[in-house]
Design goal:
Layout lengths: L2 H14 L3 E2 L24 H5 L8 E9 L1 E2 L2 E2 L13 E9 L5 H15 L7 E6 L11 H8 L7 E4 L1 H4 E3 L4 E12 L3 H6 L13 E14 L5 E14 H8 L12 H11 L7 H22 L8 H21 L10 H8 L4 H5 L1 H32 L4 E2 L1 H11 L3 H10 L3 E2 L1 H20 L4 H13 L12 H4 L2
Parallel strand pairs: 1-2, 6-7, 12-13
Antiparallel strand pairs: 2-5, 3-4, 5-11, 6-9, 8-9, 9-10, 10-11
This protein binds adenosine-5'-triphosphate and magnesium ion (MG) (3 copies).
The site of one magnesium ion (MG) has 3 residues, from strand 10.
Length: 479
């Protein structure tokens, strides 16, 4: 089944259950100081759950563009390395605002997966909240008993607070959740280890596809929980993961959502997907990141030096560096992938078609300027190496390259390693912390919101600057 059809089956299914189908909210938040990017389908309905606004419809469904690269949900380090976490992805969701509750939410989720899509029930597991002593709440018996009507009891697993209790924040609406997981391993693999032992264990073929949240409490300022007068349903299902299941693939990247982009990368770069792990990671990173960056630009967020724009720039640079390092791409090419995305997703998200040329131009310009930086850095590094007195290159010099010329430190380390040289990491770190100290005191004397924002970003996104190479740079990530 084509992904287009999966999406429309979902929306039509919930339409038939009297849901209003609404458009995706923008991926880039414009007027929410607490969140830079939409990271879940419920974000645009937040005010309804908080009771600050009255919903026009009590049953809603949509597909929402999400980006998980900051704050509580930051999947960036996983992206490309695993096969089922993306930066940008679509979250299919259905909501009840004080309308139906657990019984219908569970029955419909089950019906959609097993009747409408005909996913075999023996490949599914569901989880139920086990309860929590501190919060004095019992196991979610209600959900457990409802699930028993649909699925064999041994396939209902108990889950802890981390996986099965959702909270909007320190205070406010919250409640237990039930997740649906799918086991797509071969029969042979299944015979070796029972699927239930692999649920929530980061197994690439036993993955969570749908999360059903039962919003029934309000977390009070003193930390206690109070039953809500009106109870709500908030669900989210990963569209690309569902496509993997429906298309009988082992990776989201093997579905028709990603394959056209990957094929274009192969054509342009001459690389072959599924040959070596390093190349594969690079290809997946680029295929993933170009979607995130394109949709951000289409939403009006250009790459820049602060706030959300800075995050977008870092994501794009990460893709450029993976190409540069592992696919040997020395010229701009990522911008050429926008046409594929626009062609593929333009019907569902018209903004990408409308802004295609802007996306292409912006990405191309960013690529060219960053490739120039990389090129200059390489030349400078070359002269540092040539004038070096020992096999260990000064951390001070590497820092200068990083700080003044924007040359990524892990690339420096990688190149040195390839030449049988090493880097004085302690020296580099000490320079880095000195610089952090300098910018901290500079920030203290400058009043202005953007300074604060930018500082946060730097703390939060520092990890992105380092490619995950074999070079031991883990300590930098904690800087
Ligand atoms: P996971 O445990 O796999 O990280 P999650 O519990 O963080 O997922 P939820 O917040 O429950 O995810 O989001 C609802 C659904 O969205 C998930 O069940 C999953 O199918 C999908 N999803 C979550 N994060 C991603 C991602 N980074 N890329 C693609 N799909 C995702
Ligand atoms: Mg997650
Ligand atoms: Mg989870
Ligand atoms: Mg979840």
């Amino acid at each position: 089944m084509k992904s287009q059809e999966i999406r429309s089956r979902f929306l039509n299914f919930f339409k038939s259950k009297n849901h209003e189908i609404v458009p995706s909210a923008p991926m880039v938040m414009k007027d929410d100081p607490t969140l830079m990017f939409t990271n879940a389908g419920m974000n645009q309905f937040k005010e309804y759950f908080l009771g600050n606004a009255t919903a026009k419809y009590t049953r809603i469904a949509d597909t929402q563009k999400c980006l998980r690269v900051s704050g509580k949900h930051n999947d960036l380090e996983e992206v490309g390395k695993d096969t089922y976490h993306h930066t940008m992805f679509e979250m299919l969701g259905n909501w009840s605002i004080g309308d139906y509750f657990k019984e219908d939410a569970i029955a419909w989720a089950w019906e959609f997966l097993t009747v409408e899509l005909k996913i075999a029930p023996e490949n599914l597991y569901v989880t139920v909240f086990e309860g929590d002593k501190e919060d004095q709440i019992q196991k979610d018996e209600e959900a457990f008993n409802l699930w028993k009507k649909h699925i064999a009891e041994e396939r209902i697993l108990l889950g802890n607070k981390k996986d099965n209790f959702w909270e909007m924040g320190d205070q406010g609406p919250c409640g237990p959740a039930s997740e649906i997981h799918v086991d797509i391993r071969s029969e042979e693999e299944k015979a070796k280890i029972p699927g239930k032992d692999l649920v929530n264990q980061d197994h690439p073929q036993v993955v969570e596809i749908w999360n059903l949240v039962f919003i029934q409490y309000n977390r009070m300022a003193n930390g206690s929980l109070k039953e809500l007068p009106a109870k709500h349903i908030d669900t989210g299902m990963g569209f690309e993961r569902l496509a993997m299941v429906m298309q009988g693939k082992q990776s989201n990247y093997d579905t028709d959502v990603f394959m056209p982009i990957i094929q274009e990368i192969e054509t342009i770069t001459g690389a072959t997907y599924q040959k070596t792990e390093k190349t594969d990671i690079a290809i997946r990173v680029i295929a993933d990141h170009v979607r995130a960056v394109s949709f951000a630009i289409a939403d009006g967020q250009l790459p820049s030096n602060n706030g959300a724009g800075y995050v977008i720039r870092r994501i794009l640079r990460r893709a450029i560096r993976y190409g540069f390092t592992f696919l040997n791409t020395k010229e701009a090419f990522i911008y050429k992938l926008v046409a594929v995305i626009s062609n593929q997703m333009g019907d569902t998200f018209p903004e990408i078609k409308k802004q295609q040329h802007l996306c292409e131009n912006v990405i191309k310009e960013e690529e060219n300027s960053f490739l120039k930086t990389l090129d200059q850095g390489l030349n400078l590094l070359e002269s540092i190496i040539n004038s070096a007195q020992s096999k260990e290159i000064s951390g001070k010099k590497a820092f200068e390259l990083y700080d003044t010329y924007g040359f990524p430190i892990d690339l420096t380390a990688l190149i040195l390693e390839e030449k049988g040289l090493s880097l004085n990491i302690n020296e580099f770190e000490s320079e880095l912390s000195k610089q952090k100290e300098r910018s901290r005191s500079a920030a203290q004397s400058t009043a202005g919101d953007w300074v604060i924002l930018r500082q946060d970003d730097e703390e939060e996104f520092i990890g992105y600057d380092y490619l995950e190479t074999q070079v031991k740079l883990t300590r930098y990530r904690q800087v």
